[in-house]
Amino acid sequence: MDRIRIMAFSFAAGIVLVSAAGCGGAPVGQAPVATATVTSRAPNTSVAAPSPEPSSVPAKPQMVRVPNVVGKNHQLAQDLMQAEGLYNLREKDATGANRMLILDRNWVVVSQSPKAGLRVPADTVVTLASKKVGE
């Protein structure tokens, strides 16, 4: 009795079907006959619309006003900076001890750079120097 096995494999390029005839009817001394069928789907070849040509005039960066956060708790200072569109924030220990500001609400801003009131690009690095409340 002949058996037929069919195996299907799926690859990114398509599906490959392999079938092999069983060896039940092969004469003695001869190898069983195997056949293989390969079916492949072409990958998605859709073409994207061409992108517009770049302008010769570079776009102006968005300018934002730097708020005054000196004397405010460090967490509130960060929130105010972000509300104005300034997200590139750095912080440092104003005492010079290089401590990490873990709980921002326990620190107060003593200086900032750039200074309050300036209009700067939104990607400007803003550094807040803070010390622990009560120091």
| Uncertain residue segments | 16-23
How far apart the termini lie comes to: 92 Å
Spatial strand arrangement across the major sheet: 1-2-3
Report the biggest beta sheet as strand number plus sense, adding barrel if it closes. 3 strands, antiparallel
Number of strands: 8
Residue share in helix:
under 10%
Structural class by SSE content: mainly beta
Strand content: 25-35%
**Cα radius of gyration in angstroms:** 34 Å
Average pLDDT confidence is 78
**DSSP helical segment count:** 1
Order of helices and strands: EEEEHEEEE
Categorize the overall geometry.
elongated
Task: Explain what the structure shows.
Helices cover about 10% and strands about 35% of the residues. It has about 140 residues and is mostly beta strands. The chain has a three-stranded antiparallel sheet, with no helix packed on it. It has a three-stranded mixed sheet with strand order 5-8-6, covered by helices on one side. A two-stranded antiparallel sheet has the order 4-7.
Give a brief rundown of this model.
The chain is mostly beta strands and 135 residues long.
